[in-house]
Specification:
The structure holds three protein chains of three kinds.
Chain A lengths: L1 H23 L10 H13 L11 H4 L22 H4 L10
Chain B lengths: L2 E12 L7 E12 L3 E5 L6 H8 L7 E6 L2 E2 L5 H11 E4 L11 H6 L9 H14 L15 H13 L5 E5 L7 H16 L3 E6 L2 H4 L6 E6 L2 E2 L5
Parallel strand pairs in B: 3-8, 3-9, 6-7, 7-8
Antiparallel strand pairs in B: 1-2, 1-4, 4-5, 9-10
Chain C lengths: L1 H16 L1 H35 L6 E7 L2 E3 L1 E2 L2 H6 L4 E7 L1 E6 L4 E8 L10 E3 L7 E4 L1 H6 L7 E5 L5 E10 L4 H4 L2 E5 H8 L5 E2 L1 E6 L5 H11 L3 E5 H11 L6 H21 L4 H12 L4 H33 L6 H5 L16 H28 L2 H6 L1
Parallel strand pairs in C: 6-11, 8-10
Antiparallel strand pairs in C: 1-2, 1-13, 1-14, 3-12, 4-13, 5-6, 7-10, 8-11, 9-10
Helix pairs in contact in C: 1-11, 2-9, 2-11, 2-13, 9-13, 11-13
The chains are: A mainly alpha, B alpha/beta, C alpha+beta.
Amino acid sequence: MSRANTFLALLLVLSLTLAGLVFFGRPEADGPPGLKDFQLRGLAARFGLTDLSLWTEARYTRHPSQSDRFSAFQDFPGSFDHFPAGSIVNPPASVPTR
Amino acid sequence: MAVLIKTEGLEKIYNAGRPDEVRALREVSLEIDAGEVVVLKGPSGSGKSTLLSLLGCMTRPTSGRVTVAGRDVSRLPERFLTEVRRETFGFIFQQFNLLRQLSVLDNVLLPLYPLPCSLREMHRRAEALLDELGLSLRQHLKVRYLSGGEQQRVAVARALVNGPQIIIADEPTAHLDSGLAGELMEILGRLNGQGKTVVIATHDRFVYEHPLVGRIVPLHDGRLEADPP
Amino acid sequence: MLRHLKILEFAVAATLRHKGRNLAILVVYSLVITILASVLFLTRGLKEEAQRVLAGAPELTVQRLIAGRHDLIPTSYGSILASVPGVGRVTPRFWGYYYDSLTSCNFTLLGLSAGGGDHLELLAGRLPTGSGECALGSGVATARRTEIGDDLVLIDSHNLGVSFEVTGIFAAEAALLTNDLLLLPETDLRVFFNFPEGSATDFEVQVFNPQEVATVAAKIKQRLPDTRPITRSEILRTYDSVFSWRSGILLTVFASALLAFCILAWDKATGISAEEKREIGILKAVGWDTADVLELKVWEGLILSLTALLLGLIFAWVHVYWFDSTLLAPVLKGWSVLFPRLVVTPHVDLYQLFVITFLTVTPYVASTVIPSWRAASADPDSMMRS
């Protein structure tokens, strides 16, 4: 039953590899788990930060939670949409869409 | 001799109700005893292959009955029909019906997969048969590289590997020369000597006039030409 | 059990007989799963990160709207806000955007109230304490090739160059929050942007009782109708939908890729050929049950799909959590010149794994089994005649 056993062994090895990755996480963990999040949360509180610093091309992509209804239309009619941020960032929850 | 296979009023219609409807068999009633060598003789289109398929539980009749070892198999569900086929019959097909991309050994192993024996046991049985039929040296060769006679022997080995009680052969000498045809009849003779029942469909004179043959059942246009004895 | 293992043996042998073709399918299949799983892991990771980190955001942010657009808010509103029951500390915030023509980057400039000098874990150096000092996010420092002690020159609203000494740089680990940030003393920022006297960007409002935030927000709206209070839960909900995998262009793109793959797989398996029908007929003729034949087809489908699934998940995990989604980052980055390293915390979502498995394995196995169903159920005689 060598080929069947080899295949099952392959599946087992791959499953164990995946399980190992899942349970042992990243290779270089910086300090105890949760410490980094605690420190970042502290920064957000210290400086009153409301948004992640991801897409910096426009106001509504940089601060999606703070943007008004018109931010996405920029300042003049011919301005471009921003891709892919514009298609990923929804209107903020504070702006009712219905 | 006990009756092993019995048919009563067998009918088989292909494509019933359609413009291309074919009545392959009409009212065929027949008995075959255990240990007999019976030849179904007739021209092309006489219904020989259809009758073999019905006797060998490869298909079900449109009407009528087939009994194998006292068991009515005409209306058996597919699962049970396959079981009967697996345990009782060994088929040698007209076109050999080997899997061309597989090796000789792999083709012979095919009937053993559903059986409760280990892979090692499967190989042992297959290799023993191939040795008996002179194919040991070619067992790892792909079937498409074999000659017609060698392919025929592979087909015979595959038909025998599950130890069947009944051998069914459909035009077994169609692709063989007289020498190889003679060898095949010798093999069938040996099997009959071991107590196996052999049913052959053919229009080859060499076969139906062979001394091995115990009885000839003539067929024409889907009917028996004479009543069975 | 023995029977199943034997059928698996036959299925593996059948797969190996077409090594080249099946290897190609495996590679493409694994790649599709890697991409799909990477997108799901990353968006999930960013969502979790946002939820955890932005839990430190202000309970309430109050901004002013004029003609529906965000405008500066009078600092006199602070006393009105402070008078609302349940409100604690009220702090005016001064911040804005700066376009740096030297690097084509947009920075976010934030004014620090007096005090400063803090030593923070994620900050190398210190915060600015006096005029002419600043602290930078790692993205800004990299873009301007600046280190602690260097001078950073920015062009103010009078079109004049203003020099700031860099006193601190945030660690790369903080990039998700601070990548484009420039912290200046508040007075410097107001002069830099030429803020009108008596106005701020918005207010940060502390609420004593978290259960009363919505009530306080409503009261603020009543007293100051031209303001828009934004609660922390609204901020979190915004990010919940930003990274929701149920929306977004990326999932649409990759769902299309997956659908295309399903169509290819179906095309491969559809209209089972006469040769395949014949093979199934032969297997049935030599004693294989319908169930045996179907099991064979299931194994043939599973061999490739399970292997591809596991390989895809492993590669996706390593790609997202070990290599910070280096392949996806350029796709997500878009027009942003500054973009942080996407360092996210590994998180296992069994529902997500189930969805990936269902979406990727089921169509392929189905497209292998279903076309063979009829042939497997038919008389072997009719299959061999076809």
